Amino acid sequence: MQVSSQINVSVQTQYLSEHASEENQFPFAYKITITNTGEQMVQLINRYWLITDGNGKKTEVHGAGVVGKQPYIKQGKSFVYTSGAVLETPIGTMQGYYEMQNEKGDWFQAPIEVFSLSVPNILN
């Protein structure tokens, strides 16, 4: 599958301390902005995540769409959503890709660069 640079993915993360109820449960939210910088409308079909905690434990997540949607994103427009992950350590990373399809029916991957999930001030 081809990898496209016509999709820009940006991420903002937040530690959800108010939802940390158990030991070794570190909940995080992440807000994703997917911007179509290409010349065709695209549809996000599937997602893939590789989540790695501070102990090196890896979890893979595959699935259709994001937050129950398979959005169409017009040229020059963005789709924004918020989701979350719970780690067993106060620090970890996520990375992955979206499988997308353009108006011509061509499938491609939009990479999601590695980003950190960390409890504030954990890395002083």
TrEMBL record:
InterPro entries xrefs: ApaG_domain, ApaG_sf, Uncharacterised_ApaG
Domain ApaG per the UniProt entry, residue ranges: 1-124
Membrane-traversing stretches: none
Domain of life: Bacteria
NCBIfam families associated with the record: PRK05461.1
Name of this chain's protein: Protein ApaG
Species of origin: Paraglaciecola aquimarina
Gene giving rise to this polypeptide: apaG
